[in-house]
Structures are given as C-alpha cells and as structure tokens.
Amino acid sequence: MLWGARKSRSSKLLPLLMLLFIVFAGGCTEDPVHPHSDFITTLADQAYFPMLRGSIHIYRAADSVDTTDNQYYVTESVQITTEGKIASLAIYRGGERASEIARWTNDRLYFTIPEADPASPLLSISLPVRKGKEWVKINSTVGENLDVIECRVMSLDSTMTVHAGTFDSVLVIRDVQEWRRGDEPIQHDTTYFSYVKDVGVIEMGDGEDRLQLVTYIPGASDDTTHVN
Known about the structure:
It is a single chain. The protein is mainly β. The chain has one domain (about 45-220): YmcC-like fold. About 0% of the residues lie in helices and about 50% in strands. It has strands spanning about 55-60, 70-80, 85-95, 95-105, 110, 120-125, 135-140, 145-160, 165-180, 185-195, 200-205, 210-215, 225. Strands 1, 2, 3, 4, 5, 6, 7, 8, 9, 10, 11, 12 and 13 form a 13-stranded mixed β-sheet that branches. The two termini are about 35 Å apart. About 30% of the residues are buried.
C-alpha cells in the first residue's frame, strides 16, 4: 500500500490497495473566500504530511503483531522548487521496492509514481481542510469505462489508537471510488486516510484491510535541496 490510494481492477499482485496515481481531470470544488482567518491556508497546514529527508514510517496490518509484515516508507530526498516542495519516497515490503513522488503546492498535496504522467497526479489533500469539504481525487473515465475517486473530510478532531499509540486531532479523509467496465454494474470501494500533524499518515485502508503506523522516525528538517 502506498500513501495515495487507488484500488486496482486488473491485478491482484498486492493484497491490499494498489495505489497508482494516474489522471487528475479536474472537477475540484473551489472554496469561497472566507472572512475568518482560521480558514486561511498556511504553511503550518502542510504539517499533515511533513516532508523531511531521511524520515522513516513503519506500518503493519492493524490486526498483525508479526514484525515480518512491516512495510517501510523512506523519504529519500526533498527539493524546494518553483512548483512546490517535492519528496521522493521509497516503499519496502518484503523483498520488493516501490517508489512514489509527493508534492505540496501552497494548498494541495499530490501523489504520483515515477512511471506515471507527471501532469496527472492524485489530489490527496486540499487545504484548507474542514469537516464536510469534498473534492475529486481522480477522474479517469473514458467512454463507457467509469473510474472516479471522490474525497471528503470526515473529521479534524478524531482520537485514534494505532500500533504506535494514541493520537488526538486526527484528520480523517474518506476516498470513495466508483468504477464500471462497459455495461457492468457500478461498483464502489471506500478507503480512509488518517493524518496527524508533524507525523503524517497513521492509518490507511478500511475494515480488515488497514495499515497502521508502528514507528515514525523524523528526518532532518533543514536537509532539503533548493532548485531554481
């Protein structure tokens, strides 16, 4: 499982969620300007997904105590560019390695994989966050083939207990995917992502298919590369 979720319809290679970041085709609901300062986007809000070179997040299935099931997410590099803050991530599970790219613009967190079109990432967080806010994460509908993921902020103040401990002020985002191939009935999948400021994702998945944070080792806060 990667940090941005999209369930695969053509392969069962991963037992949980295949997270491929393919086409973001717009459709986001724009937020009206709000007169109160607590609705204004600040850099502090990006702490829901901190980007620090050398950071390590270790995850394990929610119902597992077997350390051999651990999955390791390593932030290998961080760059500051004109397009925002970009992190290169490596995910290790068993003997396999996967990669993905995370990017913070001023008010949006995008994910993609290196093999995908860089112009078509998934929109995972849209700031400012508030309960009930919705946006489209992906819309890759082509012809009769439907494939859409919509996001909704479910909570900003949840308390959650995972392998790593109990966390307050948890941001919970629900992803609902609808897909159909040809004239088949429309099917649905639901995935939840739970974020904590200055930590990142502490849980992802739904029902029995959930990964929970076991350990977070922060990297160096000033170890970034500036690219003009």
